[in-house]
Amino acid sequence: MAAYLIRRLLLMIPTILGIMLISFVIVQFAPGGPVERVLAQLQGQNTTMSRVTGGGGDLAGRGGTSQAGGGDSNSRYRGAQGLDPAFIKRLEQQFGFDKPAPERFLKMLWDYARFDFGKSYFRDVSVLQLIREKLPVSISLGLWMTLISYAISIPLGIRKAVRDGSPFDVWTSGIVIVGYAIPGFLFAILLIVLFAGGSFWQIFPLRGLTSEGWSQFPLWHKVTDYLWHITLPIIAMAIGAFATSTLLTKNSFLDEIRKQYVLTARMKGLSERQVLYGHVFRNAMLIVVAGFPGAFISAFFAGSLLIETIFSLDGLGLLSFESIVNRDYPVVFANLYIFSLLGLVVNLISDLTYSWIDPRIDFEARAA
Description:
368 residues, mainly alpha, 15 helices, membrane, MetI-like_sf, MetI-like, cell membrane, transport
């Protein structure tokens, strides 16, 4: 197992390099960028000023005008016409675009290897500080959603497997399929309409994880206020994951129940409960338990983006989306790097979990 672990850890290096290289190349060809964003803001301010002053406003102090009409250094950027080329060069230096792309990529890799992610282009704060500020919201959503969906889906999946083909299995399957088919964000909107003052009842709050002045509340009030705020977002997020893990649990148990060792255990006179929880449970739960870290990471980042937006929850998903829209590349690449690394580590943890639950699984022998 030690050789397998070392091999997997070493394979993470080229995988991370490939992910970052592909993303970096895509960004180079993507339209727009931080320089263009600043220029667009300046042109918008200039247009507004011109309307106020009758066309006499200028951008002096923000870049001035170019006597030559822009020059070659401005031709790469939309909206740069009429601006001083020296100002454009200062912008490029500020964002690091005065260096060739290969040099910028190698510098980014060296910095990221030391977990130095620099500062945000437009927020004047370090990227790590931004991530630390958003982390509690995403952890809350991911952890609660994963725990609740597993707490419901595992017992339900076992029950459906035991009563496969019964009316209970049929109507619960209908509910599960409907839940899986409904996108989480649509369910979130429905919950808001029904229970957050949309058109019917004002039971739950519409935004945030806590009320104003939460830090001054007594402990019991803090807990209840937090649970009050998180109820609707967690329900909206759990509906799809709950359906997936329920069917996964059921199918896993059905596969094990039909195997020969289960028939042998029944012939020995063991009760159904002893067969189910003494023999079947351990083998059937392999795929379910091993998938827990991946399910958590998925909910922790990607799964919460729309939910964070709808309920105004300032987490990592919303941060990444806003950074992509605003071309805040240090935040974009830092999030990509961190979560790619987390994904690779989680996959490794899942494999180790398989071996821990069932010692018969030997990845090292299989690789050989």
